Write the structure tokens for this entry.
Amino acid sequence: MSNERQKPIIGKVIISGSLCCKTGLHIGSSKNNLEIGGLDSPVVRDPISREPYIPGSSLRGKLRSLFERQQGLEFNRYSVQNVYRHECIDKSCPVCRLFGATGSKEGENQPARLSVRDVRLTSESRKILETIDTGLQYTELKFENALDRITASANPRQIERVPAGAEFGFEMVYTVETEDKQQVTKDLQNVLGLLNMLQDDSLGGHGSRGYGKVAVSFTKEAPAILIRKTGYYTGQDKKQNEKMIAVETLDQALADVPEIVQFLSLE
Ligand SMILES: [Zn+2]
């Protein structure tokens, strides 16, 4: 049985853009009960800079779950984090191809072709948020009330969130390890399509109450898509092994998938 992990890397496709919060964003961190006056529901922060950020695993997990639901796949795994998810060893499964799966036997593992880096505030956003005095670093507090249906008593709580308007820069890397042009085309269409769908879904907690609406965009100045063939990394002619594509929208990025595939000179 062929081992998927030993397929040679042909190149990398790096997608970089920004996620703009259209509504407040709450990516929860564990509550510190010992902290006096601590928030009921704090956001996750970088332990050193104390800046709120979106862990790559949160964005990646959201995209995976959207993809699982889009494909109507069975939630057959129950993870340690007490969530049901889909994972299989079917080599043709579009979800496990991109996001990886652990098999029960050796050789069954599917490596993840897509990695998502931690998503940080853009420097411009950081500057703006620094000027807003909410008493918290870069965030705001939203008070929510849960009404007891019997006694009608209110049960107020505070949820910390990154305010609407904040912008984060994201980067995801798709590893090309098949010569199959159609497969790479499909994978890239799936990745970009998931970012597209995310805009009509939500990121982080309390999505059904309006939190976490994000818009994906790219800047015309920076390459939204960077294609690097392995020769780029080994010091061969960089121009020949690297291509930058600047787009402004996801639709444009999707339209450029054939150009990406062509540059990779797949069969
Ligand atoms: Zn699967």
Observations:
- The longest helix spans residues 181-198.
- The chain has one domain: 4-263.
- The first strand starts at residue 11 and ends at 21.
- Residues 4-263 form one domain.
